[in-house]
Amino acid sequence: MADALAGRYERIQRQLTELFAGYARGLDATARMASIVALLHHKMPHFSWTGFYRWTGEDLVVGPYQGPLACAVLARGRGVCLRCVESGRAVVVDDVHAFEGHIACDARSRSEVVVPVRHEGRLVAVLDVDATRPAAFTSTDAEGLEAIAALVHG
Ligand code: SME
């Protein structure tokens, strides 16, 4: 199971790498983010919301995404995305209802994974994915998404 999932992330990563090195060479970060979320969201059936939030140093502001309309600016001082910013590490939440401070942009969301996006060593954004079933994500998702998030500024 985990191997099959890892293989899917590897294929998506390869496809994006080829895209960004090929005809889409020279894309800026926003265009890369848009391409990444489009591909992930449509290839991964368990993703109900897939998108980026940019870290301004004070706020998390929504970037390119796919799925239902989301919070444009996340409430300060709480949330899964902020946990990722503060820790600098991937965060996997099996049950968002049990995560104190979780920000519910979509009431149907039940589990979530957030990974950092870095540029020149600094965390500049996060890649956030929601699912409508509990415990939809594992470390395989976090690792696959981190490798793909590295392509934004790669
Ligand atoms: N749940 C996130 C907010 C973003 S939405 O999931 C799209 C959080 O707690 O930071």
Word description of this protein:
The chain is built from four helices and five strands. The protein is of the alpha+beta class. The chain has one domain (2-149): 2-Layer Sandwich (Beta-Lactamase), CATH 3.30.450. The longest helix is centred in the N-terminal third of the chain and has 20 residues, at 2-21. The radius of gyration is 14 Å and the shape is globular. It starts with a helix and ends in a 5-residue tail after the last helix. The structure holds methionine sulfoxide. Methionine sulfoxide binds at residues 49, 70-71, 74, 79-81, 102-103, 105, 109, 112, 128, 130.
Determine Rg (CA atoms, Å). Answer: 14 Å
Helix content: 25-40%
Low-confidence stretches: none
The biggest sheet, with number of strands, parallel, antiparallel or mixed sense and barrel status, is:
5 strands, antiparallel
Total helical segments: 4
Question: What attributes does this structure have?
Answer:
154 residues, alpha+beta, Beta-Lactamase, globular, binds methionine sulfoxide
Give the secondary structure arrangement, pairings included.
Elements: H1 2-21, H2 29-43, E1 49-55, E2 60-66, H3 80-87, E3 91-93, E4 111-119, E5 122-131, H4 139-149
Bound molecules: methionine sulfoxide.
Methionine sulfoxide binds next to helix 3 and strand 5.
